[in-house]
Write the structure tokens for this entry.
Amino acid sequence: MSQSFSIERTLRTIHGWLGALILPWIFMAGMTGYYMNHEKFVMSFFPEKTATSGELFLTVRGAGPVSLSDSKKIASDFDLGMKYAPNDTKKFRGTSIYRFKAGSHNTIYVDKSSGGYWHLKRYKIIAYDRMGAQLGSELRWGRIFNSIHERGFVGESLGRWLADMTAIALMIFSASGIFIFVSPRMRRAKNRRARRSAVRF
């Protein structure tokens, strides 16, 4: 009997510490999961987009229609590694664009009607006018939330180990919780049966 009490106390300790350690990630998983189901509602609490729109590009200096060759120069002036990458969408924020890429998380959309452009990084968008002056920037909250939900943090440098550790901790937390809940009830039921047997004899 003393051994079972020792196991139960140990599991209670593990259960308590695991609960405290994984609580932040449980909260983040819940928050980001809620975002995925109710994106507009969640985003209403965040700052409005500040990386401008295609229409606003037309109001800044030097704005005017650009050809593909013009846009190639704009993109290469920003980053020599940018290569033209036509896509099916061909629009961004309501305006027609030329797309250029240099790696998986380094993209430029050049607005055809003004020559202004957006630089899309993994978690940020920065808008520039045709002359290269920065007009605004914003965080890509959708990508940030997805990264937190999938990995437990922002980025890929650490892989998915934190999410895996949290998943394992949750399984241990659940199993220990079930044991802590069931064990005393099974013990009380066993004691009641033993008392009834003793009374009969």
Observations:
- The beta strands are 83-84, 91-92, 95-101, 106-111, 117-121, 124-128, 134-139.
